[in-house]
Each structure stands twice: as C-alpha cells, then as structure tokens.
Amino acid sequence: MKRPKKILLLSSNYKKGYMRNARCDFVSWSGTQWYPIQLGYLGAYLESQGYVVLLVDAQAYNLTDEKVGAIFKNFKPDYAVVYAGNESFDFDKALTEKITKEICPAILAGPFYAYKTAGKRIWGISGCLENGVQQWIEQGADPNTHVFGTYLPTHKLDKIPFVSEFFAKRLHPKYYRTPSEPWPFVSIMTGRGCYWGKCTFCLWPRVAGSQGYYCRSIPNVIDELRFIEKIRIYKSVMIEDDSFPERRIIDFCEAKIKAGIRIPWSCYVRAELRYETMVLMKQAKCLNIHVGYESGSDSTLERIKKGITVDEMAAFTRRTKRAGLHIHGDFLIGIDRAEDEIDKTIRFACKIRPTTAQFQVYIPYFEEEIWYRPWLERKARIAYQHFYSDPRAWPAVMRQLWKPAVLRQSIKTILGVKG
C-alpha cells in the first residue's frame, strides 16, 4: 500500500503584528489576527482527498525560522504551499524558492499572489486553491508552473469537511483575535466571491472570486453551526463571505432559528439591508455586522463603484441601530484623493457612529501608489482619536478592555503614540 503524500501549508512569520490572512494585509494596530481561512479550506479539502496535511501558521504563533525548519524536518512533507502576502511577497517568494531547493517542491498561492503576479506568469496557484493545488500535485508538482483553480459548484463545496473542525484540531483559538468579535471566535465561509463584485479597490472578489458568487447549501452551513455549538470551543462565528446577500441572509436566519442553534454570529454586508431583515438577523442571534462604508464623499463612492450614497448609508445605520445590531464600520483613509475629502470621511464616521470603527490606510492594489503613506497613517490616528474620544464610543471600548492587546492599543491611540 502506497504511503499517503504529505503536504505542509504555511503562513510564514514575516514581521511582528503582520496580518496576511485578511482581505488586506498590514501590521495590525489592534493586535488583530484572523484565521488562515483559505489555507484552512485547502487543508480540509486535501485531507478529504487522502493527503496528510499539516497547517503551520507561523505568523500567528510567532514561530522562529529555526522552529519552522524543525517542523519541516520532523514532518518531511512531499509538497509545500506558501500563502503569499502583498507586503511580504518578496519574503514569501524567496522562502518558497528555498523550500523547493532544500526540502520539497513548493509553490506560492492565494489572492495576494494572484494580484502581485497578474500578467507576469510567475509560478504559483491562483483562483480556487482546493482544486488548483490538487491539479498542481497531480501534474507533477512542477514548482515553475502557474495553475488557476476553477470554482467549485455547490455540491462540491458541500463535500469539503468543515473548516471549523479542521481549525479546532490544529489551531489554538487564543492566537486569533479581533476587537469587534467575542473571544474565542472561529471563521467560516458559506460562499465564495462577491454578489456585488464591482468595487474597484477590493482585492478578494477580483482575484479569488473572479468567477462570480458561488456558495454552499444552507443545510450544509447549518450542519456546521450545529457542530460548532456542540464542541463548545467558540463563543461566536464570523462568516467571512465577501458580502452576505440579503436573500441568503433571510434563508440562513430562518434555517438557524428553525434548527434551534443559538451561537452568535457576525458577517459582512453591504449598507442596503431592509429593517425587517435586520430584525430577523437579531432573532437569529446575529451579533455584529461589518460594513464597508469606505468614504463619506459621494464623489468618491461613485468613482470606486460602491453603488450606494452617503445618505443611503446613514439611513442604513439608523435602521441597524433600531434593530439592535452592532456595527463594525470600515473606512478607507486615502481612497479620497484630497485632504478635505478625507476629513469629510472622518466627520461622517463620527456622525453616524457605528459601534466600532476601523480606519484603514488605503492600499492601492489596482492603481499606482499616489499617497504619502506616513501622512495617511497620521490621518488614520487622528480619525481614531476623534472617534474613540467621544463618550458615545466608550461602552464599546469598555467591553473590549479585558483583551490586553486592545487595551494597549486603545491607550496608544488616544495618546497619539505610534506603534
């Protein structure tokens, strides 16, 4: 009987606080670290295909090069997949070449890889990682090739083992935190791609879900929530779909309520849900919705093809608060092209007052760098100071202060201290 092939999946340790497993990569000011969700689904899929898989999140675990080297030596993988970041791309590429030369065939993968290499034909795997990696292996694991994984339809997505079960066996939840979610939480996806998919600045839908929006069946998702509730490891579930469509939200909530599943959950939505839908979400134990407001300028929103106006976003926010849901608002500092427009966005955030807010320095994935980043970082810190110095923000802050990383960063932000 042939020995099963062994595959090591790696998120490398680039620098302290770096976060490459989110929709954009940067050094997090709040100590946030998301689960390596794309590697998680890849690992769960490969195991279902008979491979032996080891997932190493060296970034979240802060593993030294020596420790990672020892893991490779002990596991003796036949193949390795390195999840590339944007900022860390050259580092990840060099590491992949070193692994290939000294240990086993290795290849870069993921949305950031697809963005960095668009049109350049640099070796790696883009698109759907599950069948992309399997195709690479079955074709001989040539480290100098490029593979694009095509999408998996619903019946095949339903056959992938639950990523929450894969994570529960391999990753300690203490390493994964974000200020907007209860701890410990776990991330899952119910669908791939974005049903809107028009925003010009957004990375994942354009490189990971470029083939449209395709999803698991609602019964399959409910089965996973039932599993998560049963194992009693996590306090909440973060649904990492690029954007949860309203019709699918309704079907999901009705099924969750009918199943009697009570674990809280959060998700990403566009600022266009009806009040009745949000009431249903509250009944289904929705805790927090992440909303990409991006800008407080209608001209900017039109330019980036957001498909919504400032007034519509403000009305949506009022509906959400009336329904009793928390909002984590995402704002991009620098996507507005003039300082007065940036200030307008900061004023807008302080006016509509989501429960918590993130002021992310804009990363221009699809256009040339046009902003002076240190200056933008100062503007982002000013935005945080304005937002969180308001007494109306303090209840949300106080709920988070038991988390040491959040406490340290809250103090630094209010004082205007860098780092």
How do the strands line up in the largest sheet? 9-12-13-14-15-16
pLDDT < 50 runs, ≥5 residues: 413-419
The residue fraction in helices comes out at 40-55%
Q: Separation of termini?
A: 54 Å
Counting DSSP E segments of at least 2 residues, the number of strands comes to: 16
Q: Mean pLDDT, rounded to whole units?
A: 90
The helix count comes to: 18
Based on helices, strands and strand pairing, what is the structural class? alpha/beta
- How would the global form be characterised? globular
Biggest sheet overview: 6 strands, parallel
- Cα-atom radius of gyration: 21 Å
Share in β-strands: 15-25%
Topology, element by element:
Blueprint: E1 6-11, E2 18-19, E3 26-27, H1 37-48, E4 52-57, H2 58-61, H3 65-75, E5 79-83, H4 89-102, E6 106-109, H5 111-116, E7 124-127, H6 129-138, E8 146-149, H7 154-157, H8 163-170, E9 185-188, E10 191-192, H9 204-207, E11 214-215, H10 218-231, E12 236-239, H11 246-259, E13 265-269, H12 275-283, E14 286-294, H13 298-303, H14 310-323, E15 326-333, H15 339-352, E16 356-361, H16 373-388, H17 394-398, H18 404-415
Parallel strand pairs: 1-4, 1-5, 5-6, 7-8, 9-12, 12-13, 13-14, 14-15, 15-16
Antiparallel strand pairs: 2-3, 10-11
Helix pairs in contact: 1-6, 10-11, 11-12, 12-14, 15-16, 16-18
